[in-house]
Amino acid sequence: MASSTTASLAASPAFTFSASTFQKLHPTEYFRKFVSQGVRPDGRLLNSFRPTTVHQGVITTANGSAMVRIGGTTVVCGIKAEVAEPKMDTPDQGYLVPNVDLSPICSSAFKAGPPSEQAQVVSEQINRVLRESKVLDLKDLCIEEGKAVWSLWLDVVCVSYDGNIYDAALTSVMAALANTRIRKPTYEEGVVKVSGGDTGDGDEQSSFTLRLARTPLSASFVVFDTTLTLLADPNFAEESISEGQISVTIDEDGQLCSVIKVGAATTSQALLRQCMDRARERSQELRALVHQQ
């Protein structure tokens, strides 16, 4: 009698969940039902990326800037050039200093206060890619050897967050660097003089652009479920239920710059190869957007 009553309750309308309720109560199972059909809840195929746009020169008071939208994630990178003292061991080299800001403004997942662990990790990942890929000859930022160099502050602010912050942030940094113009300074009697202000406005004789040696761009994936299914360009919901994340950075020649693995998911050589092949295609798409303006 008890078992028949239980079955009757389970089949009653009161125990029938809407799709949104089922997603909240059982997010992994909800996604699994879609993934088993080769699609995702937002309609994308498993290896598809969200619509992406890049706009340069969005901050008129910066030396360089860019806004990048990947789906529901939007970031803005502003670059400011400041005069600094060089390091003693590299007296003729300037600095690239990236910083990523993830605040409650972009998502309730982040709290006010000191930079979150995720923001610090992404900042360091970008710093490492810029440094190890040698995107820019830091000697180009030298004003007077041993005395003064340019320090480029690469400030990335997330305006809205829906996953895959690394791809969006790195793309915005590279687009902003390609958009950067710096006034040509003079060094006289220990003083650096920059005529006409320091925003970089001016012609080719009074200012210069950066000579980028490489343009590394990334494609990120999450590993879903024990089946090790790859989902390209994860949104926040997909990141939340994933077993781990893989970000592959590729330059314009198709050369591998870095592979970043986060989480406990087991990855095979075949899985990594799949990520790298798709990342090469994606990096070409992003590069076309970065250099379209």
Could you give the topology of this structure?
Blueprint (H helix, E strand, L loop, with lengths): L1 H10 L7 H7 L1 H9 L16 E5 L7 E7 L2 E12 L10 E7 L15 H17 L8 E3 L3 E13 L4 H14 L2 E3 L2 E3 L2 E3 L13 E3 L7 E8 L4 E4 L3 H5 L3 E7 L5 E8 L5 H22 L3
Helix pairs in contact: 2-3
Short characterization:
This protein has 293 residues and is of the alpha+beta class. The protein is built from seven helices and 14 strands.
List keywords for this structure.
four-stranded antiparallel sheet; 7 helices; Ribosomal Protein S5, domain 2; disordered N terminus; six-stranded mixed sheet; alpha+beta; 293 residues; single chain
Structure in words:
There is one protein chain. The chain has 293 residues and is α+β, with helices and mostly antiparallel strands. It has a domain at 52-209: Ribosomal Protein S5, domain 2, CATH 3.30.230. Helix content is 29%, strand content 29%. It contains 7 helices and 14 strands. It has helices at 2-11, 19-25, 27-35, 117-133, 165-178, 236-240, 269-290, and strands at residues 52-56, 64-70, 73-84, 95-101, 142-144, 148-160, 181-183, 186-188, 191-193, 207-209, 217-224, 229-232, 244-250, 256-263. The strands form 4 sheets. Strands 1, 2, 3, 4, 5 and 6 form a 6-stranded mixed beta sheet that branches. Strands 12-11-13-14 form a 4-stranded antiparallel beta sheet. Helix 2 packs across helix 3. The longest helix is centred in the last third of the chain and has 22 residues, at 269-290. The protein starts with a helix and ends with a helix. Mean pLDDT is 89; it is low at 1-14.
